[in-house]
Amino acid sequence: METLIQLVIDGLSTGSIYGALALAIVLVNQATGLINFAQGGLAVLSAYIAYALQQTGMPLLLAVLLAIAGSFILGALVERVLMRRFERGDPDTAVVVTIGLLTLVTGIAAVLWGYNNLQFPSLFPLTGVNILGAVVSVRSLATTITIVAIMALLQLLFMRTKLGLALRAVADNPDSAALSGLPVGRMLMVGWGLAAALGAIAGALVGPQLTLTPGMLDGALVYALAAVILGGLDSPIGAVAAAWAIGVLENLVSVYVPAVGHDLKIAVPFVLIFVILIVRPQGLFGRKVVVRV
Fold this sequence. Notes:
Elements: H1 2-32, H2 39-55, H3 60-81, H4 91-113, E1 128-131, E2 134-137, H5 138-160, H6 162-172, H7 174-179, H8 184-206, H9 218-231, H10 236-256, H11 267-279
Antiparallel strand pairs: 1-2
């Protein structure tokens, strides 16, 4: 029983890493209607910026806050300078542009900081606590709590605030939103800026658990995209719940299903996607879209 509890807790901790990126992907989709494949690269770049500021002697918390603010500005500039040229065109083209942006951002990080593994300092203590016989680090527990808080704030933003409703309106139908008096361009910039800031938070949370490298979040991005598909593109709660489910099921399957083991556990999210898309194409928590013709 203690082994089972330990696997579940470790899975929730790993799932929180996926969930942090998944929330940023949901935010971009809610604000622009696009899937941003560059989200992981932007998160890593912000982590490098926080690391560089901290290395100058700046307190870690202040360095992270400045990196978050800088990421908001960077995200807004990316939308204004680059993405706006493609947002009104073919969505597939815009998605390809985000893949190219991921390559560009990763390359910039590699040129500036190299490919050597760097140890990102932790915002939380590394001590462990005993939960039902399982040992969990305070850092993992704090990361999970932070993700839950961000998930709740995003849900509140999109459902209960004028800004969130404006972002959703612009993403759903920018032409109608413009006719209603909404500043479409400004809303798109805000959406990309918020997503980049959220990615910076994810980078600061994930960096201490992984070694800081340009490709640090490449694998996590795949799981995050799987979580978004499983949970629903329009549901922050669904994205986090799916990320946790992936993390827990991966751990359980790798231990209790010998035929899968550790090497093949990466297939777990893809099997889940296959099943969920057959049963519920909009995701577990997604809204079914009805189109009138």
